[in-house]
Structures are given as C-alpha cells and as structure tokens.
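EI: anyone free to look at a 972-residue chain?
SC: sure, send it
EI:
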Amino acid sequence: MASDESKTPISSKGSSAYLMSIVRTLSSSADFEHREQEKTRIEKAFRESDKRLGELVANDYQNVTKILQSFSKMTKSINDSREKIRKIKEDLSSCKTLLHFKRDELRKLWRDGVEHKAVLSMLEQIEQIKEVPDKMDNFIAKKHYLHATDLIVQAVAKLEGPLAGVDALRDLKVELISRKETLHEKLIEELNKQIYVRAVQTQSMQRSGSARLSRKDASVWGLTDGTSNNAVPSRGAPTDPNKSGVHSEVTEDLNQDPTENLTHFINILMESLFVLRKLPEAVEITKMRIEPELLSLVSKATQQIAESAGQQSDSLAGQSEPRHLLDLLQLIFQQFRCIAATHQLILNDVRRLTQVHGSEVETSSMPLHADVVYDMKDVWSNIQAVLQVLLSEYLDVRNSLSSRQQAPSDFDEPTMDISMYFGKKRPGKPKKVTLFRFDASLHALSTNSYIEDTRQFDASDVGQQSLLTLISKQQKICKPSAFNITAIYKPLKAFIHDIEDAMESTAGLQEFITDFVQNAFLGQVHQRVSQSIDVATRVVPTSVDEEEGHKCFDALRNVIDEKVRREMGVPRPLLQSTVTVDESIGELQELMLALPDYADQFLTMVCNVLREYRDKCHSAYRDIVQHGSDDRRVISAMWAKDEDISRFLRSLPSWHTLQPSADGKELDGTVCSEQEMRALNSKEAIILITNLSTDETLIPQQEIITDVTQMRTVANVHESLEWFASRLQQMADSLAEQSRPALAPDLPASELPLQVIGDAVSVSPKTLESLRSLVKDFRDLAEVCLLLLHLEVRVHCFYYLLPVAKQSNYAGPIDDLDPDSNVLKLNKDLSSMEEVLSQSLQPKKFKYIFETLGYLVASIIISSVQFLKKINENGIKKMCRNILAIQQNLTNITMTREADLDRARQFYELLYLSPDDVLTSIAEKGPQFTGSEYDHLISLYHRSHPGHPIPVQEARMKRLREIMEKGQSETV
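SC: here you go
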C-alpha cells in the first residue's frame, strides 16, 4: 500500500497541483492527529521520491551531462545567429541606400542581359533547325514517324513564327515546308503497306507453321504493348473505342522497332497524319485504294498457289483441279480477314481522333465529311465484289447460265409422265450441220479484237465490269467449271457467315451464290445426270422386235466386266445401267454433303432419277413378259404378280432363307422338318398342277419365255436391283439418322424441321419418305424377277411334260424305248437355264429355283397318268426311261439325288402288276400314293386291257376306296 501511495504523487499532473491538494486536505481537517498522520505520510513519500530521484540521476549521469552540454551549445549558436542577422540587416540597409543612388545604370545592364539571352536562345533554335533534316531522315529510316512528324511540324511552326525574319533560313524553310507537305504521302503509303502487305505476310507465316513465331511476329497483332520509358507523349487516345472518357497516350519508343506491334504502329501513323492535318485526305485515299489493292492481292495469291503447285499456269488452267481453287480461296479468306481487321483498327483511330479532336479535324484543309469517312460495310462490300467476280470466272457463270437454258428439266419436276415410255416415239428432226464458219478469218479476228478493246474501255467506268475485265486477264489455277462450287462451298459459306456477322445484314455474296446454285449449277447437274442416265438406259429397237412392237433395252443386256465386278466386290455381274445410275446417285449424294443447304433439292433430284429408272425397268420388264401390243403376259409373270400365289411363295421356308436376318447373317435353311417341307412342296405342286394340267389343252409357246438370254436378263435385273435397293436403303437410313435432331430422338419424322446439323445434311421428311417408297419399289421388282424365274422354270416343265402324256404313244412297238423327244427338249432347256442362271445368280438363289424341281416333275408325271390312253410294257419302260433321263439331268444341276423321281418311277412300275395285286399291296403295306392317283392308275390299266368288264373295274374302285378309308381311320 505504501508503494502504491508513494507512486500517486509522482503520477500527478504537476507538483503545484499536488501541493494545493495537500494544503486543502490539511486545512479541511480539524483533527490534529489526522493532520500529523497526513504530514508523516507526505514526508515519507518525499523521502522516497528524493531517494528515487537520486538513483535516477546516478544511473543517467552521462546522458544528463550530454544534454546540458548540447543545451549550452545551442544557446551559444542562437546568440551568434542573432548577431549575424542583425549585421545582415545593417548591410542590406547600406546596399539599399547605395543602389538607390545607381538605379539608371542598373536598369541599362538588365536590358542588355535580356537582349543577350534572346539572341542566345535564337541561336540555339537555329542550330536545332539546321539539324532537323538529318534527324528527320534518321527517324523516317527507323520508322519513328511520330517523332519525325512532331519534329517537322514544330520546326515549320518556328520558321513561320519566331524565326520568320531570318533570311539565312529561307532555303531551309522552303525545304522543310516541302518535306512537310510530302510527308503525309509517305505515311499513307506506309499505312497501305501495313494493311495489305505486313498483316498479310504475318498471317501467311502463321499459316505455314514452319517454325515458332519470333517476338516480332507474335507482337504484330498487339501481343506486346510497344511502350517503354524513352517515349514521346502525343495526343490522348482511348484504349477502347467503345468506352469514351477512358484515354491513354499514344507513345513512340525510340529504343524499339515501332512495327513490332501492328495496332500500335497504326495508331502512330494515324496520330502522325492528324498532326499533319492530313487525316481526311488519308481516309479518302485509303477508301479509294481498297478495291485495287484487293485485286492485286488476289493476283499475288494466285501466283503463290501456282508456284506451290509446281506447274505452269497454262497447264493448270486446263486441268479440272478444284483443290487448287480451294487453296486459293482459303488463302484469300485469311488475308481478307486480316485486311478487314486492320481497317477496323484504322476506323477506330479515325473515330477516336474525331471524338477527341473534333474541332481540329473540322478546321483542317479537308474536313472529314460523312461521304469521305468509310465504314466496315464499305470494306466488306469491296471484298464481296472482288470475290463475286473471281468466283464468276472460276465457276464459269456465263456459260453455266447459257447451258442451264438448254438443260433438260426432267429432274426438276417432282413427277414425270410415264406414258412417254409406252407411246411410239416420233423420229427426231435432222440437225442442221454448219458447213463452214468465218470465226478464224482475218476480218473476224480484227473485228473481235476491236470489240473487245471497246468493251474494256467502256467497262473501266462501270465498277463490276472493270473487275471482271481485270480478273479475267489473270492466270487461272484450274479450269473454270460450275462444279468447282462443290469444293469451295463450305469454306465460302463460313466466310460469308463472318461477313454477315460483321455487317449485321445479309451478304450480297450469299445472294450471288444462291442465285448461281439455283439457276446455273443445278441446271448443269440436271444436264449431266440426264445425259448419264440417258446413255445408260437408251432404247435400241431391233428390226424384228420393232415390227412386233417390242423394244429391247441394251441397258438390260450389258453387264459390268469381271475386273469392275472384282473392284466393286459384288458376287454376280450387275447391269451396266444400274451401276451407272448408282454412280449418278453417288455423285448427287456427294453434292448433298458438299452443298448441305441444297440437300433437299438434290434428294428430290435423286428421287426423280430413281422414278425414271424405275419406270424404264418396269417398261423393259414388260417388254420381256408381254406379247407384242397385247396385254397378255407369260404365265409366270401373271402368277408372280398374283397376290395369293405371291403371298404363298413368299411364305415358304425356301424364300425366307434368301432374306438376311437382322444381324446381316443368312438364315439357316433347316427352318422346318423334312416332313413339313414335303407338305409345303406338295401344296405348291398341287397349286401349279391345278392351274396348268386340269384340262386337255396344252400351254401355248407364247406364254413361256423361250429365249434363254431373256432369263439371263431377268436374273441380272434381279441381282442388280437387289444390290441397288440395299445401297439406296443405306442412303435413306443415313439421311434419316442425320436429319433427326439429337435433342428429340423420339420425334416423329413428320414433325422434324428442315435444318443442317453441323456438317451433316438434313432433308424434308416428305422427300425422305419418297426415297423409301422408291427403295421398296426396286426391292419389289427384284423379288418379282426372282419369283418369275422360280415359276418360269416350273412352267417350262409343264410345257414339255404335258405333251409327253397327252400326245405321245406308250402302246407302241418294242423298239420304241428311247426317251420322249419332249423330255429331251426339257433336259436341254433345263441345262441351258442352269448354265445361264448359275452365272447370273448367287448360289443360294440358284438353289431356290431348282431345289424342289424334282418333286414337281414327279408330281407332273404321276398326275399325267390320267391323260394316257393306253400303255403296255414297252410304254412303261419308255416312261421309266423318261423319268431316269430327267432324274440324271436334275442331279447334274442340283448336285443331289432327286429321290422324288424314284417315287414316280415306282408309281409307273405298279402297272406291271394287276389291279388286284396293287390293292393287296396297299392293304398289306399301306398306301404310297393318294387315292386319286391309284384311281387313275386302275383306270389306265383297264383302258390298256379292254377285256375286263366294267363291273369288275367298279368293284376294284370300290375296294380301293374301302382300303384307303380303312387306312385313314387306322392312322387317325
């Protein structure tokens, strides 16, 4: 407590305040004892303070001594200074008095000093003016144009101002004024060089990619700021033209190359032109030189592509190599983009200088009017004009339009008149042949030369025509053709998209391309495809057929050679016409990919081509199966078109084995048991026998195809159309997949919009549905051709076998044992068809035509027993020889033993037995044939042995029915 109390007085604000507090305490206390205590406490605190003070003084004795010494020195210095100040005041007072007496003399000396100073300054300026030409040359050589401009402007200003009266500088003044007047030409030339040379060269170096870009090349588009400490400030410039009010100074560093940064260098050039008051004139000249410079750039790019191709320009001009044109356009597009970007920099500077220094620009020698200042629309318009004329030359627009007027419009129409293929064609008018012409005469050459010169002279003032004249004189890097559009359409479309984004409006170049494609290119495609299809499907009537009204198509006779077939990888020969049409469709499909915006038009053209080829195939098919001008057709053709028979034949397992499965593999042939297969074959045989052998009449010759080459033609048509339909199906599936939007995979086809997804093409659902319908038509015709061959071989069996029973004699002498002549004709006919069809059809289809033929022949021979009038043992042997001859021939064709013919032979061998023995055998072993067949067999036996009474025959028939019914009941 004592220590705390002792610290209390020390921490007081002052000793006087503390003393007054003690006095008030002692005076306010009435108790003596209390005052004594207070006194004692104060004395104790005083002693402690004194003690502590002594300790502090003892500890800091040296510091206290130094402070006292320093204080003493300061006091002495202050006293000395006071004494000096007093002395200075006295001296100043004395000087004032003395100067007052010599005032006029001092004024004269001051005036002399000012004059000498002005003379020295003028001399320094004259020395600097003399150095201006050398400094200016140095600045221009190093392209420090802003320093050079400021230097000469300031020098001329001095010569016309303060130094105007110096006669010694008159010649120098004239020189500098002349150099000032011509400096803007140098600046404008440098500006155009930066627009059309430097920017393009830098872009070309970046395009080549041969090495890493140097610092100079990397900074040309503004990758470095281009400023340093040693720079001269100029007028304020906004860093962003869209942000007014935010400015930065355009500076020029003397220690760096100003051309390193293209943006900064253009700023310097524009500032220099502004300082020279030549900005409006520079803008006007830049605007006027856009078109000529673009033409010069196109010429240089053409020369560059020609040199890179390593061929002479004359040889390139005669070659159809659109890839050279594509390289040229890609190079030009890159250069034009750089030029447009550079013009944008210039316009930004003009806008900046106009906004910041608008009054100074308006007071210049040439005011910056609205018609003088150009914008980016003018730049892009000139670019489009040059490209339009360039494309007009390479796309051969004039000749394309003229050929479009002569091109056939068959493929333009969505529908065609099919009757034109059935009506008799009128003989064409003979073409007029020109005997001679005067185009190469001296008079014509001189006249044409004069007209051409006159046209060029007139075209020099009409803009577009002058461009056409200039570009037409340039060398060509490929042969002009409308089909060059396929190689350049996509990059051209991308460039047009850039133009439209920059102009924020529809590009005129897009209208030109659209007009060219619709009015010229599509016409040439139509003409080209039309000629190709016409050659492939041209009708060549023969003299005999022409009299009968038939027309044979060479297109259905000519097939591709073996080399082409191996290259295509097809198993059997295809029709040359089908391959030609497929190639035409492939070309149109490539055009759909090359010009995706017109995919629907090309697909419509594809559908129209397919319609025409389908109609011609149908017409040729009818010429084969139709008799003259009658509507009668061969039996097999009528049955192939019959819905019931066609449906039944398509339901057979043998037909299903021909169809590919979902995974593309062939189906297994064992789709049903042998018993079921026999039942189905029996049903097919019954249908054919019921329709062809129920009466005494024979099949007329005109109701079968007697020419084996026509069957080869039908087989070729089947293989070709089946292959063609599969390729068309792949095309339809591909287009459907590309046309379906990824965001709506479950959207119905009828609701899909017509659009382009990336590089994929998109077509309308209606046109795609038409394509699918045509695919089905071709596939149906191919299947009808195969069914025709299947039925035609069987009808031939009826044609030759029915007369065997109806017209031949089987009750003849013993030496008549050779096979029937009709059997020999059938074998020869089957061998001919086998030879033809094995070369034209795939093995599985050849098997489909001949595999069940033995069962049908056996059924025909067994059912023909009802038409035999009589038969003896020699006749039985002759019939067995007929069966054996057919069996051997079919075995050679199918390479399998035809066991069904053994059944027919066994049936006729029953005639060696008596009817009672036959009935006994049936009762013991069961029936091997049907009741009607046994019935016909017993009837033939009784016709051959007329000695048996009729009641005996009826009894045997009755017993036969009882045995057959008993056998059926036992089976049940």
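EI: Residues 736 and 768 are 7 Å apart (CA to CA).
SC: 👍
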